[in-house]
Specification:
5-stranded mixed beta barrel, elongated, 8 strands, 3-stranded antiparallel β-sheet, 37% helix, 7 helices, alpha+beta
Length: 256
């Protein structure tokens, strides 16, 4: 009887689920095959040879074999553990949210190279570059939506065509930019921007992905950008995220 062929593939652990006594089910994000569900037998044992690979947000090279609808882990070696996240609860919580958000817009067995690169870059910005979580979050959310097919139209007011809208607002339902006084009778939900937050929005949507996090914002423009990004995401995906709730709970505790 022919042996089951093995595949070697790099993947990031989006989620881990404990099962049986020592096993885990891993949700991997790969460039070639999108999301894969992988059974990692014995991954919860201390002496497991791929225990380090089988943890959330671990970027590793895996040797897998397929049996029925499931993939099984045979070997694994870590490529990047993003250790800069693991000593910072806020950054780690945001990393989990970025992973859950990416999982929500990714399909199984379909190429996901751009989404994977975006997630790796976001984790790298938090872990190695030390970018503030408050900046990484809206930047990541907006660019992810663009990659997933929800790109907003941010070049001019959708109603009057003004390149620099007066009192700019982002209609998070329609996904368009408008002046504060335009489209007042239209249904939808619009959130206010300002000159700096609009410039940041355009940089995220239309700029070079390699320089995605290469800007700074003052407190108020960043607050507006963050509100617009989260509002746009909520309106387009129409679902909640438990990791976002946890991340926000940390913000509440910090502000107390």
């Amino acid at each position: 009887m022919a042996s089951t062929p093995h595949i070697v593939i790099s993947g990031l652990v989006l989620r881990e689920t404990e099962t049986k006594e020592t096993d885990k089910i891993l949700t991997l994000l790969t460039a070639e095959r999108g999301k894969l569900s992988v059974i990692a037998r014995g991954a919860r044992r201390k002496n497991c040879r791929f225990a380090a690979c089988a943890q959330s947000l671990a970027w590793s090279e895996w040797t897998l074999y397929q049996k029925g609808q499931w993939y099984y882990a045979s070997e694994g070696s870590t490529l990047e553990l993003f250790n800069g996240l693991r000593g910072d609860l806020e950054a780690m919580a945001l990393g989990f949210y970025l992973a859950e958000l990416t999982e929500a817009v990714t399909t199984e067995e379909a190429p996901a190279g751009e989404l994977l690169r975006h997630l790796l870059n976001g984790l790298y910005a938090l872990s190695a570059l030390g970018k503030p979580p408050a900046l990484v979050k809206p930047v990541f959310e907006l660019k992810l939506l663009c990659l997933a097919g929800y790109e907003p139209l941010a070049d001019s007011c959708a109603y009057c065509g003004r390149p620099e809208p007066e009192e700019p607002r982002l209609d998070v339902v329609q996904g368009v930019l408008r002046c504060g006084g335009c489209g007042g009778g239209e249904r939808g939900r619009s959130l206010p921007l300002c000159r700096d937050s609009l410039a940041a929005l355009r940089h995220i949507v239309y700029g070079d992905s390699k320089r995605l996090y290469s800007f700074k914002l003052g407190e108020e423009p960043l607050r507006r950008l963050s509100a617009a990004a989260e509002g746009f995401l909520d309106a387009q995906l129409e679902r909640g995220f438990r990791t976002l709730d946890f991340y926000k709970s940390l913000q509440s505790n910090t502000s107390c």
